[in-house]
Amino acid sequence: MISTLGSIPSPPQNTIEIGPLTIHFYGVLIAIGVIVALLVAKHRYARFGGVPELVERVSIWAVAIGFLGARTGYVITHSGAFVDRPWAVLFIWEGGLALYGGLTAGTLAAIFLLRRWRGDIFAYGDAVAVGIPLAQAIGRLGNYFNQELFGGPSTLPWAVEIKPGSRPFEYADFATFHPTFLYEALWNLLLTVPIILLLERRGKLFKGASIAVYLVVYGTGRFLMELLRTDTTFRFVGLSRNGWVSILAVALGLVALYWFQRRGETRTLVGPPSFLAPGEATADIASPSGGGGAGEAGVGGGQGSVDERSDPPPRPSGGTPP
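The chain above was modelled as a monomer; its predicted structure follows.
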């Protein structure tokens, strides 16, 4: 048994009962994170010369499909946990969302819809590059209430207390563990977001490069967190599945960053700079900017650019999203 001089106490509860309604803190924090990401992405996309309403239409579907991808990824890699209760695959409030699965599914959905509705894919990527890590930071606090995604035993003053029923079998005699969910939240708040904004403020990033920086910085942090975690069900050469995926994310981010920087397309900036979308304006809101240099549906500005704010992107046949 490890003894500590201080630690983060276990949450007293992870739900609130309001009459017949049970509210899970995990779900509330996930929802708050999604709302924050959406608001930030809308603001940044408008600043990058796009129609902010398009962000809502695309993001609603991307988030929904992303959740399906995240849950599917978790269930596939933890299938043994559902043998005795297969219906529990629907109980997302119990935790169990594979982040990389969600990002992959959500990204594919967003790309498909942006091409269909003639949005600016690169500007959208830059817009969500700050919102996604903010959402992750908020959502990770939900893991605290579910007592999950913690690391190995620790005696550090900020180690988190885990109740016996939530401890890994091999560490049943240990009471406090590394709060890797907190480490990841702080990594995003103190490194991922500030690095992106600082590089943007200094004009170091060309169009599309912000999302590449996110992959590099977040992937590096996630790799380090995976080295501390003990709740993984698969390891190869000592690394967890998410550890390997993090290496892939960093590699993909580096390649994308090189390509975007070599491509050298200047980012369209409309209106005055803000904290979440820094940089001096390159276009006036009243003048055509095109939202991008390629000029092709799904890559250039198309109907998602600033010069067509009064004419929102065309909806699919039937007038409603798919």
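The first helix runs from residue 25 to 47.
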